Amino acid sequence: MNLALIVADAAGFIRFVNPAFCEMFCYSQADILGKPVTLIVPERLRGAHIAGMANVSAGAKPGLSGRAVEVSALRAGGAEFPIEIAVSTWKDEGGNFWAGATIRDISERRERDARLMRLASQDTLTGLQNRHEFVSRLEDWLQTGQRGALALMDLDGFKEINDIHGHLIGDSVLQAVGVRLSYLLGDSLAIGRLGGDEFTCLLKDTKDAREAQARANSIVAAFRKPFSLGGLELNVGASIGIALAPEHGTDAEMLIASADFALSRAKAVGGRRALVFHEAMRHETQARRDMLDELRLALRNGELELYFQPQVDLVHQSVVGFEALIRWNHPSKGLLLPGHFLPALEQSSLATEIGWWTIDQACRMAAKVNGEGARYRIAVNLFTQQFRASNLSDRVKAALNAHHLRPDCLELEVTEQVTLNDDEASMQTLMAIRDIGVGVAFDDFGTGYASLSSLQRFPLTTLKIDRGFIRDIQTRKSDTAITRALVTMSREMGLRTVAEGIETESQAAFLRSLGCEEGQGYLYGRPMPMNDAIACAQQSETRQLRSASFKTQ
Fold first, then answer.
1. What is the largest CA-CA distance in the chain?
2. Does residue 549 have a pLDDT over 50?
3. What does the alpha-carbon distance between residue 5 and residue 22 come to, in Å, rounded to a whole number?
4. What pLDDT was estimated at residue 526?
5. What is the rounded distance in angstroms from the CA atom of residue 3 to the CA atom of residue 18?
6. pLDDT digit string, tens, across residues 228-282
7. End-to-end CA distance of the chain
């Protein structure tokens, strides 16, 4: 739009305007000429305008002379808009005072500036505060000395959604998360997205850890409800770390770091929960992160290896399968058993990657040991993160196809705890596995909280009796009774039973008398490398299992 021109006399009445002025202010020349300049000045500014004009007409130097300033003006009808105005004054030959101005409508510039400000302070995807703005607000709030809590939230299962459904669906989930958080927290001073699938909020007026825990628990509970997007029902859980102010940090960086340690711990113990920070978490988290960094290198460098423990038909004393168990050939610490690294691995996203590798290696072993037949079954333990992955059945099928393996040569083992997190989702996952033809074993049954009805609901093929019931099975009546009941129930339901931790011939004989079909334990062999396991199977075929010396680590 062209520059608007206006000229007023000493009394403040408009004596000239150009067409651009009329267009900008929505007046005709007939309507505006002879009218006071205050007609285009907002009421709150009129007093200052009148005083300034009076001073200048009396001979004072105009304060706005020679420079452009940004102020507000009024259009016809009262709409206010921003302008940039440059004022000049003069006297004509008759000594009459005049004031003139050039005016530019800067509405578009202001809108552009506002957009830039929003971009500088808002997360462009969710509309929440971005990291910079959130930290700035958090710092300002901390300066007030008020008590409160910082909640740092990470989404459980989001990576799998991105991997399976693509980033467009993933972005839609993040937007929906932002909406749900805003609804839950209302007029919170600060709600932000720090990046990726990490969100944060300031819980003002939180008196203590108990109250902070309760508020965070309500957020976790709200995220148990799935998101409905594009015909998809997407389950995204929330893990939250909580840090209290000022106890856990007097500046934003320290408070966020404390909440991050608590968040890491929450995810490490299973996710989908909230935990309040305590100092020990700082050391635990750093040690866990160091371990995960080493494990990433181990996977890349081929340091991980599957060992295989024989599973034996208790009646015929022959090997019928193997359980695959992961080992780490550490370059400086030697062979590491799972207890050294699984606690750090199990709840990390790396667990899924290593889990896919494990399934592929187990299928490779099954293809080798079975040759053209299909006698030996390889059992693989699933990580929790794997079990929650929506593409689990697809990955299993891909591994079977890659090694030209029949589905009944593979069995996937799940624990009670894995299935307890989401009963309906667990059912769908297990059904998808069984539809392929792959077996499903319930591992360590009796050590957790699964009800007996879960054996009926879930499409299982095998029940594994925990070693804790086997150790004293001949001397402790309760262990005997429980094992007998599990074997009988499994037989009636068409499930195979595998007893773990058999160490003596008398234990094996007792289990045979109860009707238990299969067993594994040091009596039949410790976990062994693949080539030794293949040799073990070959010796079993010639009925030399009992004399085989496969007592390797």
1. 128
2. no
3. 9
4. 94
5. 9
6. 988 888 989 999 999 999 999 989 989 999 999 999 889 888 889 999 999 888 8
7. 84
Q: Is the peptide bond before 310 cis (omega within 30 degrees of 0)?
A: no
DSSP-derived secondary structure for 332-377:
TTEEE-GGGTHHHHTTSHHHHHHHHHHHHHHHHHHHHHHTTS---E
Do 439 and 411 contact (CB within 8 A), yes or no?
yes
E strands, 23-76, are 68-74
Cβ atoms of 498 and 465 within 8 Å: the answer is: yes
SS3 content of the chain, % helix, strand, coil (to 5): 45, 25, 30
What is the pLDDT at residue 230? 80
Q: List, in order, residues 6 or more apart from 383 with CB less than 8 Å away.
A: 345, 346, 351, 352, 354, 355
pLDDT at 450: 53
pLDDT at residue 51 in the model: 81
* Strand arrangement of the beta sheet that strand 14-17 belongs to: 14-17, 4-9, 97-105, 80-91, 68-74
Kindly give the pairing relationship between strand 462-465 and strand 439-445. Answer: parallel
Tally helices (H) and strands (E) across the chain.
21, 21
pTM over 0.90: no
* Cα distances (Å, whole numbers) of residue 278 to 168, 206, 346: 38, 17, 22
User: What is the Cα–Cα distance from 412 to 370, expressed in whole angstroms?
Assistant: 18
- pLDDT at res. 454: 67
**Separation CA 105–CA 22 (nearest Å):** 12
In the chain, the domains with their CATH numbers are: 4-110 (3.30.450.20), 122-278 (3.30.70.270), 291-542 (3.20.20.450)
Beta bridge partners of 73: 81
Burial class of 236 by CB neighbour count within 10 A (0 to 12, 13 to 18, 19+)? buried
Cα–Cα distance, 139 to 129 (Å, whole number): 14
